Amino acid sequence: WTTFTPPGKKSRIGNKRWKKDAAKLIAAGHPHAYIATATLSQPVDFMKKVRKALEYEGPALIHVLAPCPKGWKFEPSKTIEVSRQAIRTGTWMLYEIEGGKFRLTYRPKERKPVENYIRLQGRFSHLTEQDIKYIQERVDAAWRDLAE
């Protein structure tokens, strides 16, 4: 579990501070680096980014979403599905930043509701419909920011 997920008496949703995008933060401090995000459910995308990082003249980082069955409370056989739902719902964006230029490497044709991702994981079993709506609004706002 992370500091974002533990519920408490004061807040069901856990930490109200929205999780920072670590890859973008690193890219801001290292404008000449190759920075990318990846996930297990998109192996071809992941392999392309690894090759690109290995060949890159300078620092490189690939931030990988690797779901944890034990910590996230789901059956290990669902690892790829959890990863797949993270990108289909837009809660995890696949992108790369090269020379300071941001480029999405995957855009869902139609984003699925974040509930599809959340309900696969026991770590979120305490969330109410209102909590999920709040998370959906945050994800939607992040995607709107890309359009600007």
Descriptive notes:
Helix content is 39%, strand content 16%. It is built from 6 helices and 4 strands, in the order αβαβααββαα. Strands 2-1-3-4 form a 4-stranded mixed β-sheet, sandwiched between helices. The longest helix is centred in the last third of the chain and has 19 residues. The mean pLDDT is 89.
Short recap of the structure:
The chain has helices at residues 22-29, 43-55, 69-72, 79-88, 115-118, 129-147, and strands at residues 34-39, 60-65, 94-98, 101-106. With 148 residues, the chain is an alpha+beta fold. It is globular, with a radius of gyration of 16 Å.
Uncertain residue ranges: none
Order of helices and strands: HEHEHHEEHH
Percent range of helical residues: 25-40%
Number of helices: 6
- End-to-end distance: 33 Å
Number of strands: 4
Strand fraction equals 15-25%
**Major β-sheet strand ordering:** 2-1-3-4
Mean of pLDDT: 89
Dominant shape: globular
Category from helices, strands and their pairing: alpha+beta
Largest sheet: 4 strands, mixed
- Radius of gyration from CA coordinates: 16 Å
